[in-house]
Design a protein that fits this description.
The strands form 7 sheets. Strands 11-16-15-14-12-13 form a 6-stranded mixed beta sheet, sandwiched between helices. 54% of the residues are buried. It contains 19 helices and 26 strands. Helix 2 runs antiparallel to helix 13, helix 7 (159-174) runs parallel beside helix 9 (219-226) and helix 16 crosses helix 19 (535-543). With 739 residues, the protein is an alpha/beta fold. The radius of gyration is 27 Å and the shape is globular. The protein is 28% helix and 18% strand. It binds beta-D-glucopyranose (BGC). Beta-D-glucopyranose binds at residues 92, 136, 189, 268-269, 476.
């Protein structure tokens, strides 16, 4: 029976039979070959690579994105190797291939699984034209430290938001038919805990207690596994003393035994050999031993497996079963992808790159990802009818490459439409648009153009400043210790402020920034992340009110770096800070006994609150939440409760609002966060309209990992909130009782 007409059950059986049959024909060397992934970034098939393919020494390649080369590599392996096992062709297609969507953190600000799914679908279709059949995304490391450059690639700080968007991304890449043309395998990474690196330094140590690991960091991975993600990548970092790449608790106990994952686990780039650098092993052979016994099926870019696995089997330290299991996990993905049936790529069978649909998808994603952080006195939207001129100033107004963000190996900069161009085409015929870059790049400390910028601003009716970070300032190994606007940007803001003109800051960045030093100097802020190919038109539409901002923050914005980690789902502590208890450093009487300071969890030199809270984001509509209610006061274990609130748009424009639903388990055997997101929904509300937004909660949704590391739901009191940000105070409660 052919796989394509089989029912899923039969297909599964067929795949298992094919895996077994193939395993039986393979020599040990061929099996080990499947476990080796090789860099093939040369853009052609060099002889050593061709030789390795012919000999069955390579199961996968990465970093080749040219269809002719990929087809040639597949041809060599299929036609010239003994068993003709085709390759997995991996690539970091993180937020688009040629057409670039906003960075993942930006996409997360849309709080819209459809946006994320559609973006991944476009990316998969485009990547598939190059013969790529495996992307190393989604990156779903919960990330609560904006110093970490890789927060840009993440979906933010929240377990539920990350989990739901992770699932959407997996669906977009893989679809429900992995073997279909244009579906590619996806890879949930980095398993696990990488987002908690100490002081936000990439690759640094992570220490995460098991309850936190299970209740926070592992949950998005469990969601991705349940959604059928075919592969996982290990993290570079050390987790509680055992680097993730050798962590059998993660890779065996949790992933295989508890979650029954039967897909492929790949190491990160050379992370097996790095076990020695961590100080876990003395040499590459021991590293190979640790990784393979922990459950890493494939080695990315290193050669510890190629050189040492056979020897480890000879020594009797690694069993053939271990190897067979690893190879089965790899072959399962290959059979699932249908790559045995269709090893070659015919790009003409796929939609053209950067087609109209792709560009519209990128534009929608950018539109929904922009967060309006402040808008004093209705400064925005700008009205082309009421202005004669607008100044567009700043290093990121017309920076086609920078707006694409990190991880855009294949992104086509020629496709970028910059804000400056988009503003020109939208309103250039109605008003005078004056552009000045003013700074060479975001880090520049050369302020010689500032006088001219002030002149341009003073001469215009409104000023839009395009500030932020260039793309190189975030991403892998691009962490920052100071996350304020780099270079002399704050000085530029100060100078422009002096003109007395309305000042709007549009900030393009790869992370939350500390904006404390400029927030009061501007009238409005649109935070656009790195918005991708179509960032320009999206921003122009928002500035001029064609569309209303609707993004909400997927990560907390601290006032200053010293507050990190700061996130909405913190624990209460025994002495929580409150407005009654805080003391300011200026007010301290240095002769008073220390007990006079309020004795609660605050810093003396800043407020305990963030500058902008998780979930925050303003709109041109005027939203108001009222009348929170629940379907029952007492919910029996195993039953559901519906919590609702009325949302009214008192404004003049129709707009989307992301309604958020939070809860707190008030008393539990393991302390629980002060708020946890339990649901969210994007709703469109017309002026004057009131809608009731309902969230249904099953008592299972309230489960957490308790002291015994088992999932538990404890009867008791639960607070629930509905609102437009994590700071909502619209609360009710219910009790869970034994059934
Ligand atoms: C990154 C991974 C990436 C891999 C392949 C590593 O340095 O940590 O996320 O998928 O390189 O490019």
């Amino acid at each position: 029976m052919s796989a394509s007409i089989a029912t899923p059950m039969t297909l599964q059986t067929t795949i298992e039979q094919r895996v077994d049959a193939l395993l039986q024909q393979m020599t040990l060397a061929e099996k080990i070959g499947q476990m080796c992934q090789c860099d093939a970034s040369q853009g052609y098939a060099p002889e050593y690579l061709a030789e390795g393919l012919r000999a069955g020494r390579i199961g996968s390649v990465l970093n080749v994105a040219d269809v002719n080369t990929v087809n040639e590599l597949q041809r060599i392996v299929v036609e010239e190797s003994r068993l003709g096992i085709p390759l997995l062709v991996g690539r970091d297609v993180i937020h688009g291939f040629k057409t670039i969507m906003p960075i993942p953190l930006g996409q997360a600000a849309s709080w819209n699984p459809d946006v994320v799914r559609d973006g991944a679908r476009v990316a998969a279709l485009e990547a598939a034209t190059a013969g790529i059949n495996w992307t190393f995304a989604p990156m779903i490391d919960i990330s609560r430290d904006a110093r970490w450059g890789r927060i840009a690639e993440s979906l933010g700080e929240c377990v539920l938001l990350t989990s739901e968007l992770a699932v959407a991304m997996v669906e977009g890449f893989q679809t429900d038919d992995l073997a279909a043309t244009g579906s590619i395998a996806s890879c949930a990474k980095h398993f696990a805990g990488y987002g908690a690196v100490e002081s936000g330094r990439d690759y640094a140590t992570t220490n995460i207690p098991e309850t936190k690991l299970r209740n926070v960091y592992l949950r998005p991975f469990k969601a991705a596994v349940d959604a059928g993600v075919t592969t996982l990548m290990t993290s570079f970092s050390d987790l509680n003393g055992i680097p993730a790449t050798a962590n059998d608790f993660l890779l065996r106990q949790v992933l295989r035994d508890e979650w029954s994952f039967d897909g492929l686990v790949v190491s990160d780039w050379d992370s097996i050999r790095q076990l020695q650098v961590h100080g876990l092993t003395a040499n590459d052979k021991e590293s190979a031993y640790e990784a393979v016994t922990a459950g890493v099926d494939m080695e990315m870019a290193g050669d510890a497996y190629a050189y040492h696995l056979a020897e480890l089997i000879d020594d009797g330290r690694v069993s053939l079963d271990t190897i067979d299991n690893a190879v089965a996990n790899i072959l399962r993905v290959k059979f699932g992808l249908g790559v045995f049936e269709n090893p070659y790529t015919d790009a003409t069978k796929l939609p053209p790159i950067a087609n109209e649909h792709a560009m519209q998808t990128a534009r929608q994603a950018a539109l929904q990802s922009v967060v309006m952080l402040k808008n004093d006195h209705g400064t925005l939207p700008l009205s082309a009818d009421q202005l004669n001129s607008v100044a567009v100033i700043g290093p990121l107004a017309d920076a086609p490459y920078q707006q694409l963000g990190t991880w855009i190996f294949d992104g086509d900069v020629e496709l970028s439409v910059t804000p400056m161009h988009a503003i020109h085409s939208l309103v250039g015929h109605d008003l005078d648009v004056r552009y000045l870059r003013a700074m060479e790049n975001s880090r520049s400390k050369v302020s010689e153009s500032f006088d001219e910028a002030v002149e341009v601003a003073a001469d215009s009716d409104a000023v839009v400043l395009f500030l932020g970070e260039e793309s190189i300032l975030s991403g892998e190994a691009h962490s920052r210790a100071d996350i304020s606007l780099p270079g002399d940007q704050a000085e530029l803001v100060r100078r422009i402020r002096e003109t007395g003109k309305p000042v709007i800051a549009v900030i393009l960045a790869g992370r939350p920034l500390t904006l404390t030093n400029i927030v009061d100097q501007v009238d409005a802020i649109l935070f656009a992340w790195h918005p991708g190919t179509m960032g320009g038109p999206a921003i122009a539409d928002l500035l001029f009110g064609i569309e209303s901002p609707s993004g909400k923050l997927p990560a907390t914005f601290p006032r200053m770096v010293g507050q990190i980690p700061i996130y909405y789902s913190q624990k209460n502590s025994g002495k929580p800070a409150s407005w009654e208890t805080i003391a300011h450093i200026e007010e301290i009487d240095s002769r008073a006994p220390q007990t006079s300071l309020g004795m609660s969890a605050f810093h003396l030199d800043t407020l305990f609150t963030p500058l902008f809270a998780f979930g925050h984001g303003l709109s041109y509509a005027a939203f108001d939440y009222q009348n929170i209610r629940r379907s029952t006061h007492e919910v029996k274990l195993g039953e559901t409760v519906t919590v609702s609130a009325d949302l009214t748009n008192h404004g003049d424009v129709a707009a989307d609002e992301v309604v958020q639903f939070y809860m707190r388990d008030v008393v539990a055997s393991v302390t629980r966060p002060v708020k946890e997101l339990k649901g969210f929904r994007r709703v469109h509300v017309a002026p004057g309209q009131t809608v009731s937004v309902d969230f249904e909660l099953h008592t299972d949704d309230l489960a957490f990992f308790g002291r015994d590391m088992k999932k538990t739901i404890e009867p008791g009191q639960f607070h629930v909130w509905i609102g437009g940000s994590s700071e909502t105070e619209l609360r009710t409660e219910f009790w869970i009782v034994e059934g």
